[in-house]
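pasting HTH tetR-type domain-containing protein for the record, 208 residues
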Amino acid sequence: MPKVIPGYKDDAKRKIIQAAIDVIAERGFALTTIDEIATRLGVSKGAVYWYFPNKDALVKEVYTYIEEDFKRVHYKKYYNQSINKFLQILFNKFSSNDYKLRRVFFEMVALAQRSTIEKNSLSKFLMDFVQTIKEIIEIEQKNHQLDDDIDPETFAFLVVSQYLGIHLLSTLWLSQDKTDKIWDGFESHMFTKNQVDSKVPKTQSKTK
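structre below
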């Protein structure tokens, strides 16, 4: 069995993190071991310890990796998209191809209940999530694409709650087709009916 992981340091760490995600998705944080991660990579246990001093350090890196990957959807360029388009981009982050990330994310939620540090980190991440959606809704209102009667913060929390709830069910038993259908229905119900008809003056759109 090789003693080292092929590739440069950053590439080697990425391979370890990905292997850890695979194992955690299958076995959970508690049952994941450095030995199993090393076996998955086909290297010695010492090769993993060369990059990560212990399991906790590796788990922390996995946590950070998933957060950073998810946050890429928050880039300002998406602010030019409609709320519907943004939500579809967001939804696709945890698509059927990312079922492992879904499982690991909810493992992170469970871990946060036992760790103040992880709880604070996850709470900040989710509040950033809410803030991003709130800002996009406010932009849509400013551009007269959404009704002013919508409270941006309330709707942002509803979106995040629905998003997490659907994906929690999908990790348990909900099929991907059903998951997609529910999300599409949610988008249509929450936003399409509240969009302002650009052909109708705003003062008339509310009384139409």
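The radius of gyration is 21 Å.
The first helix runs from residue 9 to 31.
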